[in-house]
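Async update (no meeting this week)

Hi team, since we skipped the sync, here's where things stand on the single-chain job. The sequence we agreed to prioritize is pasted below, unchanged from the tracker. I ran it this morning and attached the output directly underneath so nobody has to dig for it. Comments welcome in thread, and please keep replies under the output.
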Amino acid sequence: MSIKSLRILCDAELPDRVIRVWDGSGGVFLDGDGNIYRPAQFTDDALQQIESAINGEAYTLTLSLISVTRSVADQVWDYDETTSVQGSPFVVKLQILDEMEQPDGDPIVVFTGEIDNLDVSDESAEDGITSRVNLEITNRFTLRTLTNGGVLSDVDQRARARILNPSAPDDEFAGRVNRMRDQTINWPNW
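Output:
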């Protein structure tokens, strides 16, 4: 069985609904569990951000949905004004498809985080007004640095890690780094 293609699936778990989109154009996509994913077009930058997230390099994922109609963008804006989406879980998955373009196995989760910010911008073109919905999604590694570029102390890091990911074991990163400064690296001697 050969792989024909991959689908990038995104789940945004908002307070009162789940929005599911896939990167591409065309019809809806039905996953193996019967969930319906609507087509969306990500910017090239968003696809590069997803690639960085898959490789474990990105701690803040910035996604932009383009070619969104103005009415849909207005609905997104109004929804965010009445019900804040900040802190809503966001999951990016890869779905392998078989030669019949059907899901082959379960999707692979490649990034999980929380929506930190949402904004909508309008652009005028010859064919009318199109909108862009921008999402900033952060994960637990975002809290390692502050907005001014400073690094958190060990105590602050532990406290923020407990808030962001309460089910994870205690974060001892800062303490381990201090212990490593006195270590010597020994290279193999073949």
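Quick observations from my side:
The first helix runs from residue 44 to 54.
The chain has two domains: 5-138, 143-181.
Reply here if anything looks off.
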